[in-house]
Each structure stands twice: as structure tokens, then as C-alpha cells.
Amino acid sequence: MSQYINQVRQSASALSTSPLALRRDRRSQGRQGAPTKRVPRNRFEQAIQGIPGHERLLQTDDEVDARLRITNLSAEERAVRRKLYDEKVDKAMERSGGRVTTSGFKPSPDREESFYTIDIPDCDLKIRLWDGGLADDGLFLLDFVVKDDSSGLFKAVNSGGQFGIYPIHRPGILCSTGRLISWEEAWGIPLADIKPGCERFSLPEGAFYRLEREGMPRFDFVFRVPARERPHLLRTEIPIGRPSMLVNP
To answer: What are the structural domain ranges in the chain?
Structure first.
């Protein structure tokens, strides 16, 4: 069976994903357990304000002290070291033009983004492929989604182990070996503990994969990961060689 691939570009109101669950830091909670709003300490923390779950990346003084391994110093000395640390971060952000490169995030309901969907035969789930900030690495991210026909929204769901994704090796195309595992599984998180809608996989662009389905030995579905066009890599004043077909006399 072959793939049915669709490129989707929808407005922010037409996208739906499960947000990343936030872990509360006990030190950031008030007396009643309500989270206390943290103030960004440097330009990096200011730049990540729009990233889902950015609260987890805002550091307290105690966390910075532990990172710098200065917990044994006096309060005055620690304050001086933290100030130098924040100034160093600000200079690094200035060199990067104030931009923070992120990867791995799923399409956000707050932004317009393009992604691909592939219909899975005899299944309500679809394969979704999106950029995920990994273009320079030659990768696409993959997850499984369901579509609400009434609203047109796509919602990310976990596969729950019902699918196996295996590479089809082709000469000249980089691919993994064996069953493809999710980022979460690679970090040692059991399938049952992956938060709903957070499962994701990464695949090389242009590669072919076979989808197997648990309990269905005859199910054999092949799909191809899209390949990005990079016309800027072909800018040259020298003619590009073309292969010739030679025929023996």
C-alpha cells in the first residue's frame, strides 16, 4: 500500500495540539501551592517568553547557584557571580541577534504553520510530519493525529505502541536501523508514562518507512518523508553535470 500525503497550511485557529504539561517547582509556589510568576533574569529568559512551557526554563537564584557550583559561597559573593552570569548570557544573546533557536515543538495553535498529513488505511489516525526546527539537520518530526471533521482541528495523540515504524533502506539515503523509537522512549520514558499527545519521532527527509500495525500481520503500509527544496545550494556559475545513459555498441 502506498501513501496519501497532503500538505496542510491552516490559520492559528485551525490547529490543535495537546500542550506540554508544566511541572511546578515547589520553590516557585506560594503558601497555598499557587505558582508565583517569575521575572526573566536575562535576555535569554525574555526571548523564550512565547515558547510553550517556558516557565520551566526560568531559573531561580538557587538554581543558578547550583548550576555555577557556588552554593558554598557567601550570599554577597553568590550575588556577584549571578550578575556576571546574567551579563554573559546577555552578551551571547546580543551576538545571536536576540534569537533563540528551538527544535522539537509541535505545531502551535497560536501560530500559522505548514505540515503534512498522511492517511493510514482503515484507521482514524493520521501521520503528521512537520519542520520542528530541524531543517538544518535534514530531519522532519512525526506524530499521530486525529481530525475532528466538524471543526477541522487536528489533535496529537500517542500511538500507544499499536504501530511500529521501520526504515526501508535505499542507496544514498541516510536512515536509521531497526524500529524507530520516539524521543520519549529514547529518554527512557515508558509508553504508559508519556503525557497525552506529547509523543514524537524524528526521521531523515526523503527516506522511506514501513508502518506495521500490532495484531495485523498483513498490514504493510509504506510512506515517504518529504524532501525540502534547497535552491540556494545550487547557485553556481558552473554548469551542473547531468548523468548520461551509455549503451554498449
So the answer is: 5-16+106-230, 26-95
